[in-house]
Amino acid sequence: MLLTAGDDQPTRALVTAVEGWADDEHLDLRKIVVADAHDAVPSISRAMGMHPDLIVSAGNDLIDPLALVTPNHLDQQFLVVGAELAEPTHNVTAVDWSGASFRGEGLGTSSTYNPDSFTAERCAAAIRAGVAAVLNDLTGIVVWLDQPE
């Protein structure tokens, strides 16, 4: 299940990467687009009601609603790509890198935030690394991706 909010370039890059990964792996990917911030919690609930193996989120607008919902649904696995929850529970895994790492909770955008860091290659690597972590029960962590300098 892909849960997405926002139409900014980083969110579009993440959505494209998740859709490409699902296509490459021949997966049945369902998608819920959150129209506005007031619809986020009901959209997360609708996604959980479909009983997916994993809910992948793309878009910074979902971080605070996920922080509200995820601790109350520990049986559902979540993967946050290109951002992270400030206080994740064991059912929330995140994948971040320098230039990403939005954490919500009024913390604002990181001073190192760079929308250009959301390249097709990095977003594709992020979804694959995040799913690998979840499949190997390495959950409740932040997987950090950075290119060597």
Can you tag this structure with a few keywords?
149 residues, alpha/beta, 6 strands
What does this protein structure show overall?
It contains four helices and six strands. Helix 1 (9-24) packs across helix 4 (120-135) and helix 2 (40-49) crosses helix 3 (63-69). The protein has a six-stranded parallel beta sheet with strand order 2-1-3-4-5-6, sandwiched between helices. The protein has helices spanning 9-24, 40-49, 63-69, 120-135, and strands spanning 2-5, 31-34, 55-58, 78-81, 92-96, 142-144. By secondary structure, the chain is of the alpha/beta class.
How would you summarize this macromolecular structure in one to three sentences?
This protein has helices at residues 9-24, 40-49, 63-69, 120-135; strands at residues 2-5, 31-34, 55-58, 78-81, 92-96, 142-144.
Order of helices and strands: EHEHEHEEHE
Biggest sheet descriptor: 6 strands, parallel
Tell me the overall shape.
globular
Span between termini: 34 Å
What is the helical fraction, as a range of percent? 25-40%
Low-confidence stretches: none
| Strand ordering within the main sheet | 2-1-3-4-5-6
Radius of gyration: 14 Å
Number of helices: 4
* Overall mean confidence score, pLDDT: 91
What's the structural blueprint in terms of helices and strands?
Layout: E1 2-5, H1 9-24, E2 31-34, H2 40-49, E3 55-58, H3 63-69, E4 78-81, E5 92-96, H4 120-135, E6 142-144
Parallel strand pairs: 1-2, 1-3, 3-4, 4-5, 5-6
Helix pairs in contact: 1-4, 2-3
